[in-house]
Amino acid sequence: MKNHKQFKQTEIERIPKDWEMIRIGEILTLKNGERPVAIDNGNFPIYGANGVMGYTSNILVDNDFTIVIGRVGASGEIHLVEGKAWISDNAIYSESYDKNKIYSPLLFYLLKFKKLSQFASKTTHSIITQSFLNSFLVPLPSLPEQKKIAEILSTVDQGIEKVSEAIEKTQKLKKGLMQELLTGKRNIVDGRQGKREFKLTEIERIPKEWEVAQLKEVVEINRDSVDPTKEFPNKRFLYIDIDSVENETGFITKAKEILGKDAPSRARRVIHNNDILMSTVRPYLKAFAIVPKRFHGQICSTGFAVLTCSEKIYSPFLFYTLFKGSVIDQCNRMMVGGQYPALNSSQVERIKIPIPPVAEQKKIAEILSTVDKRLEWLRNRKEKLGRIKKGLMNDLLTGKKRVNL
Q1: Could you report the per-residue pLDDT of 354-397, keeping only the tens digit for each?
Q2: Per residue in 58-98, pLDDT tens?
Q3: Which domains does the chain carry?
Q4: How, if at all, do strands 276-279 and 288-290 pair?
């Protein structure tokens, strides 16, 4: 790639001198989609405003590439269809296009970059019309440059897709391991899988040598509390609320830095390394996390029960156990409230969990945490590729950097 300093100012933006501004209606013939004849698990995808919404045996388009634009609802969402498909009536699609002027994958990236959803009419249902799209201006390089830009961006997209597939496979692996390890079906102590003796308890069937205990027997709940507005009004701290914890995964992604005097009324629970944060508000959403070292001594919301483990239970093992169906079932039976059903501390105390010997707890947690480390690496890789793509789109689709042809 190379930098190119020769630009011209157009009526809407600054573009390279050898590019042109052109209206979409001059290069595409647009048409509204149609209600699917049938959704019958056929071979051809049905594209709506949000993307693939099912499959059918019928065909509405059969092109190398078809641009699909959300018309109603998810108006302005852009999709690129290759080959045969059906386009639903909540979307607009390119029935044909001028192959001498436009390379459709490049237009796909251009329209994604322009974020058409911001131009949707703000009525009861957001909508984008054909007339608006026909008059919408886009900057176009030469056809060879269009193809080169699209090739670069699609290569990054392929990388993102591969990482996404790896994440999905690893998540399935983790789910299977949790079902086997946290029920004792896989005996990792002596390798006698399927040959250990089991007993039926009040919560589930578990290995004979495991026990059942209430949380209050193995953890201390909400050990430390503080009022930042009074105790350190001029000191900043990291605050974890329910929205900071990603459901199902345990990742803490959105901790907020807050000045003590500005602390919300729910910022009261002091957390320590390896404490478990258990959301007591809608616990079925599984906003649970184990506190890493970087959050030691920080503060979380009173919407969490903070569980500090005794020597009877290994903290990472308890973290994974909270996701079990038997635990969530108990939460669902006990929680009270309407829109935001929740548990109180006395209810959390009574939750029953299966407890293997500590040595087995550690082995189970070690296996699952290894999978989690793999997931974290993959997620970071996907985020990095996303940042790379965003930078490339900003450079290549504006002409700030030019490709070598």
Answers
A1: 999 999 999 999 999 999 999 999 999 999 999 999 999 999 99
A2: 999 999 999 999 999 899 999 999 999 999 999 999 999 99
A3: 20-140 (3.90.220.20), 142-191+357-405 (1.10.287.1120), 211-355 (3.90.220.20)
A4: antiparallel
